Amino acid sequence: MDEHPESAPGPADAGPPLDRRAELSEFLRTRRARLKPEDVGLPDFGRHRRVPGLRREELAQLAGVSVAYYTRLEQGNGRNVSAEVLDAIARALRLSDAESSHLTHLAKPKQLKKKPSAPTQHVRAPLRQLLDAFESVPAYVTGRRSDILAWNRMAAAVFGDWSELAPQDRNWARLVFLRPEYRELFVEWEQKASDIVSMLRMDAGCHPDDPRLSGLVGELSVKSDEFRRLWATHDVKEKTYGVKRLHHPLVGDLTLHFHGFRLDDGCETSLITYHAEPDSPSADALRLLASWGTDATRAGASTQRPDLTP
Q1: CA separation (Å) from 34 to 39, 139, 235?
Q2: Which of 103, 125, 143, 306 pairs with 238 at a CA distance of 20 to 30 A?
Q3: Is the dihedral of CA 159, 162, 165, 166 positive or negative?
Q4: Taking the model in full, what pTM does it have?
């Protein structure tokens, strides 16, 4: 269905670059704070700890580096750090693959040439045709900053008709944190919110100089206490499949399996699809939503749930 080319950043969209050194410092500190000595095989002699988690000297011991070296790194000075040292610290902190990748991006940023503006996110015509071919499968394409770039009729039936929104509002972070109807749509709203923030964190590690990303983070930090709290945890993760429980205003409860497919198109985009178990109540509900199409959420908002019994 719809696609929106990324509009040029304006004053309301842009923000100052994120402080990469501060991001590195806080990420390491929060990862260290979640570990206890017994978690990593170190003795705990019961000494009073002023802060939760491992001390810097304990983490340095586990990683096989000097305390002074690790302290400099945790203070945000990642210059000239080797991949071997980062791997040792990642193992000591028991980082996931996504967290290890994030640490590498923060400590050893790629040296990219300055560009006059961020590259335009786009969806190729054959991919839009593929979306429309998924007649019974809600599907959409997302880009950087959780932007929603294109979607099909079934996605509009399940999640709302995004064509009615301004292009800058077609963004999962803005939808989840700023629009009450999405708090009602996602049964596990807190988990959805956490997933969105974690993906934005990974994006920030790869693109700390993106003014639109920093502008989005600044906007949400001001407007949403929940976003500000989750952003402060520095959690990062990639979630490419799972189950989402929804409460749709027209058909009620839905249990859908989702899969994310990273597209090799140079624009850092992903295709997300949803489906229900065959012959399940959710499959029946999707068929009903297919008959309503883009009017489904609008109809659900203005009427009571219909009686589906024969």
Answers
A1: 10, 36, 11
A2: 125
A3: positive
A4: 0.82
